[in-house]
Amino acid sequence: MTATRTLRIALAGKPNAGKSSLFNLLTGLNQKIGNFPGVTVDKRTGSCQLDAHTAAQVMDLPGIYSLYPRTVDEKIVTDILVNSKGNHYPDRVVLVADATNLKNSMLLLTQLIDLQIPTVLALNMMDMAARSGQSIDIKALSAALDLPVVMINGRNGQGVEELKKVLSTNLSPSTKTIYKTGEELAPLIKNIQQKFQLSTPYQAYQFLQQPDNLSFLTPEDKSYIATQAKAANFFQHKYQGAETVMRYGFIQDLLNKVILKTSDPEWKKFSYKIDTVLTHKVWGYLIFFSVLFLIFQAIFAWAQIPMDFIDSTFAQLSSVLDEFFPEGPFFDLITQGIIPGIGGIVIFIPQIAILFACISVLEETGYMARVVFLMDKLMRKFGLNGKSVVPLISGLACAIPAIMATRNIESWKDRLITIFVTPFMSCSARLPVFTILVALIIPDVKLFGFFNYQGLVLMGLYLLGFFAALISALVLKFIIKTKERSYLIMEMPTYRIPKWSNVGYTIIEKTKSFVFEAGKVILAISIVLWVLASYGPGDAMHNAEQLVKSEADQSGLTDDELEARIASYKLEHSYAGIIGKTLEPVIKPLGYDWKIGIALVTSFAAREVFVSTIATIYSLGGTEDEQTIKGRLQSEINPETGGPRYTPAVGLSLLVFYTFAMQCMSTLAVVKRETKGWKWPLIQLAYMTALAYVSAFIIYQSMA
Amino acid sequence: MLPGETAVISGFRDDTLSVKLLEMGLLPGTVVRFNFSAPLGDPICITVSGFDLSLRVSEASSITILN
What we know:
Number of strands of chain A: 12
Distance between the termini of chain B: 9 Å
Radius of gyration of chain A: 30 Å
Shape of chain A: elongated
Shape of chain B: globular
CATH superfamily of chain B: Ferrous iron transport protein A (FeoA)
Oligomer: heterodimer
Number of strands of chain B: 5
């Protein structure tokens, strides 16, 4: 079966219309997530075979109501559909409409007709529509719009074969024109159409309406359009409003003709009943916090088993290869730099997968819209937005996908604040650091024989991060000035049972994008750190073995102890060690010595490295076993006081430092990408580090 | 308006918002139903031409209605 041609097909439609379900049905696992050039929006493409001679490259566009975008994600749709000369311009568009709510699914359709793109109308959720008692005259609808209409069921795949058949035929655009711009605009539109050689007047009208949203226009093009618009007294909002009213007028007339029987509002009764509980004053919040708790539980308790497994597998792999390879810097790089580096990425996969499974289920059921609804007013007090809740929750697993999840926040200011404060949410990489330090300084006893002190402190640290996020948001709310208004106009989807295959696809997609986006940075950084920790100036590194050996001759160490001593000596004299020592005067007021300094340096790129660095510094060999490290840290003596190094003051100071400090290169990289520049990540880094330093300073000085 | 009441949209007070509201199908002449408000009184949930929409009180108050 060889394809003689490949069609570019774009799926468009309003959010929640079932585009993703159709996309998954069409392409299965032949999916690829890429980036649109120059922008950060995920490009979901996949391939499928329409018939023996036709292959298709299917692209899933972000959900939109009309060609006038509201969020960064939505802009890309306008950009693609209005640019008939662009690389992504589709040969066919499938407009996925929600049959239970045809009216506002049709707005975009009428615009596509005016752009003269060959379009197929796919009526999804016909089963729900049928249940609601609605009945549509498909033939009349198809005739009135002059385009093919296919009924599909995104849940079980009915109608998909029919849709493929229709798509593989020679489809011509609809001959209808829905929106005719007024006479007064005719010369203006004509000028633009000629200047840019556009095939449809509506395309020219779009150039006129929103030149700033069309990335393919050059500054000269834009200024040409601006001069033209000004000369003709063109007001964007006025015309856009008039256009929408006109289109809806057409849609209403059409629906009056083709809808044979309107739906009975009774069918939504059940959904409303659920709403009275889920958005209830008391039950609503209670249920929301229980759901949060469950997600929390899932991320931390259930993910632990696969994480431990991954941890030990990679450790074993390293040591097996270490035995097997001959000695030499290249093999050391593999066993000590690259393999642990990859392990450091893979270890987060269980948590990320579980988190996105939870979030995807909440979104599929329609509960997420209720969470936004419940939390909006509270969040707004802090300069955030109801839609900031999802990123903040995701931040508990990892800030990277969390920051990517801010893209559906319409207001730039709200989005920026959310991006800025999300890294304060205690992510999973902080947990190993917290666990070790809490175990070290907090006695393992129970309060009233019930609450474990260590657990309470741990919870306190999470709360501390959360409140730091809220307060920072509040500060930013007053600092960042914007003319743009924040708003929340959002459809509340009807509750439904999630489609599990969609949940599965989301997990795969998010995990993949984490591994490739963040993974690259984490891997690169771990290699750099390995170099810093394994090489040093002068002969010290080279002579390490002999020096330690000659010292050890008197003390009668075992081979393992000797190895560990050498490693620790090497680390002390490596570049990382030198940086740690240089740093000592700066971190001394926080109660840290140069050994902790080394750990701060190595964990600058990724916090979790703290534990393994500590293990190496204290000559514990490769172990990351909590009990061993804890025991060693407890016996560490502070030469100045003669008492233990890790006093409660030092421990708490470190805990607070790690709660606030940025210490994550990948997050910075993602923030840079999402805010399109170094300005915000650098401000964020400076702010978080300063807050961490000052807080740790206050804690240590007041306790020591 | 109180929860459960219905009214007819007569127009908008805010140009910028009106464009977005129109897009969602809130057209002059359509019937809206105020379903319920969030526990803290804001945002609110309304039904318009067969689907449910949530919007903030400030946004809702830019819509003028006829009872």
